[in-house]
Amino acid sequence: MRARRQIIRIDEEKCNGCGQCVIACAEGAIKIVDGKARLISETYCDGLGACIGDCPEGALTIEEREADTFDEAALEEHLARSAGAATAEPDHLACGCPSAMVQTLKGEAAPAAEAESATAAPSQLSNWPVQIHLVPPAAPYLDGADLVIAADCTAFAFADFHRRFLAGRVLLVGCPKLDDAWFYRAKLAEVLSQNDIRSVEVVYMEVPCCSGLVRLVEQALEDSGKRVPLTLTKIAIKGEIRESTTSEVSAEPAAR
Question: What integer pLDDT is reported at residue 98 of this predicted model?
Fold first, then answer.
């Protein structure tokens, strides 16, 4: 059913695809599609505009127009599907795809014949898979882990990534601009709530869109209700650490 009501409007010319609005939308009504924020369904948007203040480009406004009515029942089903995918998708992939098979790695150096030179540093990667989409929340290496959640680009920009961030830690990687931010938030909240995570370090790039990863992790911590030391480390495009701060996040699960 359609009616004249308030609903979000997204100016694609202004949108830079940073994903902040996706994180801020508790209804999961907005997604990044082809590098731009899109309203995926009018029935999921309540028109209250909680996402507006999180847009750094001023691309979001509330307008009054003819639109499908807000459907709370459809929204609940949508949110349940989004949260359920956080466990169902990895389990499905792990059954048929070797690339998603859960493995705890021992961190041994590669055989000498495979090394580029005698001075090649050994990998410090301790787990597989590493993509947030593929890691099951019940993966055995997560319980009791010191967790590094890194934006995809950081390992390419920061030359000493393995030694500085991976030794003795579990790695999860993703892109807050190109991937499904709502899925990330739900998945990370499950990882945090189902495991005794000892600490979290978010490694992200200095570009504006990458700060979305920080927001995702902070909101996942709130959703999980866990008290966890959180370190935020920003990497410059030229490769140096721009800043690093540590705090302890403690919150009750976020209420809708």
Answer: 47
